[in-house]
Amino acid sequence: GREEGKTERDLSDNKQACRSRDRHLSFAEEEAELAQIPEVIGPRSQRHVGGETRIIKGYECPPHSQPWQAALFQKTRLLCGATLIAPRWLLTAAHCRKPRYVVHLGAHSLGRQDGCEQTRTATKSFPHPDFNNSLPNKDHRNDIMLVKMVTPAHLTWAVRPLTVSPRCVPAGANCLISGWGTMSSPQLHLPHTLRCANVTIIKHRECEDAYPGNITDTMVCASVRKEGKDSCQGDSGGPLVCNGSLQGIISWGQDPCAVSKKPGVYTKVCKYVDWIQKTMENN
Prior knowledge:
It is found in: Secreted. Residues 1-22 are annotated as: Disordered. GO terms for molecular function: serine-type endopeptidase activity. Keywords: Disulfide bond, Glycoprotein, Hydrolase, Protease, Secreted, Serine protease, Signal, Zymogen. The chain has 4 helices and 14 strands. The chain is an alpha+beta fold. The protein has one domain: Trypsin-like serine proteases (Thrombin, subunit H), CATH 2.40.10. It has a 6-stranded antiparallel β-barrel. The longest helix is centred in the N-terminal third of the chain and has 12 residues, at 8-19. It is globular and about 50 Å long.
């Protein structure tokens, strides 16, 4: 019942702790919890490219263990997940594009603030020039987009960018997805703490077998770990994190944990590093 017993003073201590770049001593217990979990922690999409509805179980991420995780809102509606990759820049899926977003950073529970949250506005989106969003959208290629916030995030231990690496990860790599579950319905009575799920990168060939004719070399596929019978959860646009770097953006595919056993399909970030760097430099 450590959570329920929080006093005003705890919350202001927490705010102070959240503003520092390093974890505060009062977070020692969380540190101990974090030491128990693998360092790779990272989210997932939906069959049609639309950025709505996705709720699946997984486990609750240790609070603030995914400090790069962002949520893109339109007014009060959670639209997509995103990943902070620089103080002013987020990476998400191109199918999430809207003219304006409210960006939530440093959040754990979307319903209950703990002093670590930061809110920013973003009005500039840079979808990949080769993303084709015409309907019916059969084309999931190049589902990647940069979003520039009006003001930079204040970097703390709870809000921190994730590295983007040109080194791709091999099949068999253990990775993590995270998200709150994007919703098309306005009511928010679902699990709204950040959820995590462990997934494993699968061979390209296996993925092609699951989705014949739809998989390109700029996509990477992952399925739920055999031993984890849990279902999991993620948001379109959210991160697939492997070995401490951003390797995928939740793009499309079946529920990663659905009975169909079909893998989730992610935009393969390592193939876009040049485009990401050039776009950030030129804007």
